[in-house]
Amino acid sequence: MCRRLQNILFIISFYISFSTLNAQASVFEPPPGSKISADSVIAAIERGEAVWIHKCEILGPLIKRGTPERLDTIKNIINISSSNIDDSIFFSDCFFMSPVVFAIATFKGVVNFSQVTFSKQAIFVFCTFKKHALFQASTFCSNTHFYHTTFGGDANFSYSTFSGQVDLGQIEFEDIYISWKQLEDHLIYDTRANLKLMKYFDETRKLDDADGVYLFLKNRERMEKSWYIRYSEYYLIQLTCGYGVKPQNTLYLSIFFILLFAVMYTKTGALRARNQDFALQRSLRTAMRKISFYHALYFSLQTFIIGVVPEWYPTEQYLIKIRKFKLFKFKTLAMIEGALGWILVILFIISLGKKFIR
Questions:
Q1: Are 177 and 156 spatial neighbours (Cβ–Cβ below 8 Å)?
Q2: 207 and 272, same domain (yes or no)
Q3: Which of 44, 162, 173, 316 could cross-link with 186 by S-S, CB 3.0 to 4.6 Å?
């Protein structure tokens, strides 16, 4: 089922649910085609009535505000569809107890829903904002939909928080103030919209936000592949370097491997000094004695970075030896560490270089 059809059916389901509400609650429902004053809409809201407006024109500013100490509670649903709002909307310090639905609506003035709480769904689908749309410092407690909505001015979601899914599919905007930290774990996957958002973050030099969207897209692409490619890509590319945008991942993984191999090299007989004099200078009485963690770390670090340690060499002894069961010669472990080191160092240089180039 296509995404647009899903959203249309979602809106229709709200219309059906509202028809049920019609029989149970007082409803402000002007006839389609009416021109109604904004004051009459506000009066209906203050009376606790549900607002159902379809194919109407709302004249004058819609203003309702509370205070940070005492929020203005709006108990019933607001459902405005296929209508024009000719002036500005200003709701501040309000608490919406029911869904807020604007479908196929045109806002000709500034729309301000700053410092409000949407306890249920906040739906603005197939809408057009001619001027700024301000949702600053607001709380979205449920799913939020801005599907196929056009923002003519700024779309400002600064300091807002989302708890449910956020649908930004097919949106059009010039400037949008939102961060990946706000959207992470909430944004609905939509390739076109997500790429547009990533490009905007890149152009405005919000590079960490752009990287967040990029990783989100790559992760979704990975999840659509066969299981063996999916897991291989995760461990080889995403975990190690975050598809080239997280050099810190490579650094942390390198430190982990250096310490891990260093612990292995502390086993008795793992390393041998290339000459006895050097070994004695290092307080090693015999070449086969267990060495300190410091010396093992020194060997591991050099093996990882350059692959060669002039003072030491790994032996033919086994890391695991239980009777006839033998596993991992230290010479083999050193070769594995050297190979891992080269791979991770190259990944780190590429990832870090990409960061600096941007």
A1: yes
A2: no
A3: 162
Q: Provide the CA 29 distance to its chain's centre, in angstroms.
A: 40
Of residues 188, 178, 114, 176, the one with CA closest to residue 147: 188
C-alpha to C-alpha distance for 198 and 204, rounded to whole angstroms: 10
**What tokens does 75 get?**
């108990």
Q: How many domains does the chain have?
A: 3
Q: Do 30 and 173 belong to one domain?
A: yes
| Degrees to nearest 5, angle at CA 34 with 83 and 117 | 45
Q: What is the pLDDT of residues 169-205, one digit of tens each?
A: 999 999 999 999 999 999 999 999 999 999 999 999 9
Residues 6+ apart with CB under 8 A from 147: 3, 4, 7, 125, 126, 167, 168, 169, 170, 171
Average pLDDT over residues 313-342: 86
Q: How far apart are CA 350 and CA 10, in angstroms?
A: 45
Place of tokens 């604007």: 102
Q: Examine residue 35 and state whether it is found in any structural domain, yes or no.
A: yes
Q: Please indicate, yes or no, whether residues 184 and 256 belong to a single structural domain of this protein.
A: no
Residue 91: its H or E element: strand 89-92
Question: What is the enclosing helix (H) or strand (E) of 249?
Answer: helix 247-265
Tell me the pLDDT tens digit for each residue of 95-140: 999 999 999 999 999 999 999 999 999 999 999 999 999 999 999 9
56 and 181 fall within a common domain: yes
Is residue 240 a contact partner of residue 340, using CB atoms and an 8 Å limit? no
